Amino acid sequence: MTTGDVQTAVGGGAAGAVLSPAQDALRAELAGSNINETTFLATDYLNHLNEAVMMIELVPSAPDMLEEALSWRPKTYQEHFQDSDLALAELACRAYEIAPPRFRLPFDLTIKAIQRRISTTLAALEPLVEAGDNGQIGLVVLSSCKTIQDLIGVAAAIVNGSERMADCAATEEPAAAEEDETTMSQADIDALFG
Hints:
This protein is mainly alpha-helical. It has one domain (3-193). Helix content is 63%, strand content 2%. It is built from 10 helices and 2 strands, in the order E-E-H-H-H-H-H-H-H-H-H-H. The protein has helices at residues 21-30, 46-58, 65-70, 77-82, 89-97, 101-131, 134-159, 163-171, 174-177, 186-193; strands spanning 8-9, 18-19. A two-stranded antiparallel sheet has the order 1-2. A hairpin with an 8-residue loop joins strand 1 (8-9) and strand 2. Helix 2 packs antiparallel against helix 7 (134-159) and helix 6 crosses helix 8 (163-171). The longest helix has 31 residues, at 101-131. The protein starts with 7 loop residues before the first strand and ends with a helix. Mean pLDDT is 81; it is low at 1-16 and 172-184.
């Protein structure tokens, strides 16, 4: 190992994890920001997903909200911050790029699962709203929003450095996790709440 490859131990909750020199250098900039110094992730991104949930939750009482909800488009972590006027946007993007894989991997997988669930919920609501089936609309919204909110809770736990999430990430196959159709299994998600 060369001097440039030397890694330093991470403090503050990620037992056994190490930082690369690039991560170690950036970590000092994270102090005092709302970007987690262990995971290099920020919960601000979750506001983008919560926006979709809030619109979906309004559909049972205001079916015309579906049109606005259908205009919602998922943004990547970087797109969210680049489109924001947050002072930490550039720092958040740089931190995400070098976030420790033990946190970024389950975070990315969870975000994909949330985005997919939002899309399938909106697709399921369209014909129900057209048919005026208020009973079914309510059931779909109740069930789907609960699942989406649970997944957002998982994503927040990852951002905040949950050791349980780090353990989950350690069991994932890195190659498989890069495929678009890969998500955390329902059993993994259930285990997190167990």
